[in-house]
Design goal:
single chain, 18% helix, 77 residues, 1 helix, three-stranded antiparallel beta sheet, globular
Length: 77
């Protein structure tokens, strides 16, 4: 099990479905909502570079065999 997410930590949600993006290229609020099993897949990005974040995003899209449309970053607090 992972350590609890700390206050002021930054998280990223990788966007793997086009329907999560509005026509104006903003993300729908549902991107950060839990799915049916009560979970949401996010990645801790505090302290790593932009390149490292995108490398992880590409790896995730390959593992899930889905196209990568972008990412949404959010601070915990």
């Amino acid at each position: 099990m992972s350590d609890p997410v700390a206050p002021f930590e930054d998280l990223s949600r990788f966007i793997l479905e086009k329907k999560q993006i509005r026509a104006d290229n903003t993300l729908r609020h549902t991107v950060f909502m839990p799915n049916r099993n009560g979970e949401t897949s996010v990645f801790r990005i505090s302290g790593i570079s932009e390149n490292q974040i995108w490398e992880i995003a590409v790896q995730v899209s390959r593992i899930r065999n889905k196209e990568l449309f972008g990412r949404g970053d959010i601070p915990v607090l």
